[in-house]
């Protein structure tokens, strides 16, 4: 889940000195940015199969930073589409050094239940994002190497290769990320499968990176599984006037409780 | 014409050698493929259904690897450790999508306040208690029964699933890699068994290679021996052999060029061409020697050439006619819809054509070039064959009527036998009983759910159609129905099993919550509740976030702009929560909280009362009691269907609940449904313990009937899978068999009719063959030889070869009859000349096919046996029934001069 936030909450830390950065330094900069105290978004998630059939999901997400020192978030997700899962709500409380706490409310059951799962490599609601894809990886978990400078979508980028130190702690054998020098946003990430070390998935930021409430935000990304030709579009919804995404608003901590899950208020 | 062809014999020789070399180069590119899929024509509905299924649900190829602990239970530290290691190694094999077994299968666990989906064995077990916990988990969900463990807990199964769209070579590599992994883990206490269609396919290919490399030299050896015995001369041995080798190389070379795979029946092609094709060369050489022998003095080069051209002119026509009828006989198999049989027909016909061409052009060319003088050194003496002829004649000349009556009786008996023929082409039964794959298949089918898979595909109209409780309930009922009705149905799995499990786990009785020691969430709960207590209102007054509306319809309106205040849009779901969930469960659980002896007996009685049948096992009784007291939510181990029992007000609410369960279940159901939340298609997987097509056929019928009677409207239900395709192939056998017999008999009738300018002649031509075929099928019926794709080719092969005997006999009889009115003498002369050649030929062909008795495959052994027998019966019929009929009825066509 945190990766969603990473992708969408990327604050530009202005770097005047661009020389002799190492891969690790680049990734630390990406990781270390102030990401705002809260976030609220209405997001669309379209699953596109190899024949082009689209299944649309809509979810509203709130998150607050409840522990600034440790950079820990509380997140609530509420599904709006499709109708069958309308008002299904997830609550996730991130913990340091132990598994996150997760609860789910199923409106049809009228109950909140705690859920636990160690299957981070499973698909998130049938999309090409796995639960782990949505979570950030600790910079220390990988060896990073700055490969080259490159241009992507008109942005000057650093290209960083990240290889896990312990392969069993990663779902990929390696990742190669294109990080924009201007906003420190990963605009393209290639993920390689563990078994054959072949390209498995590519995450691409489409459209331009927008500044919302002072924060540079990619508003439209596509995750494509190149082996199955299945892809998932993840984007911030909006109308002509504005995008449905806001940062640093005040969100009540009561929203991140089991009671809210059940009652919706 | 012949003069021109043989003007420059070297050119003929070089040309044929070059073409042969060209096709020879193609041979290594031949691949072997025995997947049922390629047995069907591309537009066959069963094949299309399979392709469609594979596209939606991934590859259907599953290899079952069973591990047996000879000494100990699988619930032991050593077994779990071994399984853990082996599964990891199996998953690392290239093109293996996943390997699932006891340690890494998804386990849906109910906890005090929720649920967990985790791998069944999370941490390596350290002691007996850990093992006990694992066993408890495994036994708590019946989806694992007969999949992860067998009855006596001595053995566990790992399912290895391949990626989709793999080539046959890639699948073979998977099999050999699995073999290698197993080698690493094999020790004196463990046994491993590998089964499943991919394994069967690989092993068929493997055994075919050994068949080809053993049987071809064998049959060549036999032909060489026969040739040597008859010619006692190097040229006479080598030239016909070269003929058949060239024709085999051409036939297989063309197959390779066209990208047609070798299948199990292709193994017969070289054997057949060697056994049959040598005849044409023999005729040429034999006649050539006769001519030379007649000269009996030194021959000049010119005379030699003259002799050769005369030979070709004289023998060419009958040899050509014989070759043509044989091609037609084999070619009739091209009418089959079973692809391997079709290509067998085409390429044996091509091979015979080539053998004919080579015999008529290549051999004379070689003889021309090799102008070394040959004088007749071959002695003719009264050999065994002549004695047989005399015996036949001596017997039958007196007992013509008796022969006809005897034939009639044989016909009647055969017809009785035909009715007993079983039509069942079962891949696994191609292998002999004692082979490793048969043992593995037997073990796995005796201990687990079965290796033969049939799928039921359910297509709904719109997204979410498959979450309707009505359809899910019937899917679940259908599963149980099939499992109960057929003992050979090991298990039926669908996503209904997962929904039931989720429903059970999410409805854990409140009772057990407080008792559950695994409740570690206490402090978190308090933390959040105390926060909550400090808040005086339940409105988020202070929030500054906007409401984005709960659906995208709002997005284009300008409302959003003005709604930047704190009001949080109220949703409508709260209506539903009026009913108190879990009423039922609390009643029941409280009732049996503390049990008196009497109540315990009452409980047992009540459990039995609620059972659908009285003779239940202990295991079933325990389940009934669990259900009775809602032990760990057992009363909810069902598809949520009854609106009164759940907080939903209408069925729609239960349908949503199922979608929500799917959302919650993070595990992978890709191979059972086409969407993680609102599936419109689902697959049910039937595991069968037998590959019998007869069983598949019955199950398909039951499914179709059940669906018609019970499934709600609006769903399209079809079946697919390798078992379904095998059944489709099986169903084609009879039609393919009948078609090829009818076509070849008609063509034989036409050819003989034209030859004698008489339809009556045509009928006489067909009689001996029909007789031989009846005996063939009679034997199959009485001796329980199944009609399968190999034995279904016997008839066409027998007609193709056997028609020669009839044609030869009739031609000679006709010639003799024109010169002589004494039918006894005509018959005797015919038998002495042509009869001898017929017996000679029949024996050599039968001997050639007899090498198939040493094949690795049962159907080919049967094929070899039946063709050999039919060679004998059809040649004998030509020499007994035919003259008996001719002498009895004295038809005009045989005594009149043609034209």
The percentage helix of chain B is 55-70%
State the helix count of chain A: 3
Oligomer: heterodimer
The shape of chain B is elongated
**CATH architecture label of chain A:** Clam
CATH homolog superfamily of chain A: Lipoprotein localisation LolA/LolB/LppX
Question: Helicity range of the residues of chain A?
Answer: under 10%
Integer-rounded radius of gyration of chain B? 37 Å
Count of β-strands of chain A: 14
| Overall pLDDT confidence of chain A | 83
Secondary-structure content class of chain A: mainly beta
For the biggest sheet of chain A, the summary is: 14 strands, antiparallel
| Category from helices, strands and their pairing of chain B | alpha+beta
- Just name the CATH architecture of the domain at 1-57 and 203-376 in chain B: Up-down Bundle
Computed CA radius of gyration of chain A, to the nearest angstrom? 18 Å
Number of continuous helical runs of chain B: 30
Our count of domains of chain A comes out at 1
Which stretches of chain B are poorly predicted, pLDDT < 50 over at least 5 residues?
374-379, 511-541, 549-585
Beta-strand percentage of chain B?
A: 5-15%
Mind telling me the CATH class of chain A? Mainly Beta
Keywords (chain B): Cell membrane, Membrane, Transmembrane, Transmembrane helix
Pfam families (chain B): MMPL
Membrane topology (chain B): Multi-pass membrane protein
Organism (chain B): Candidatus Mcinerneyibacterium aminivorans
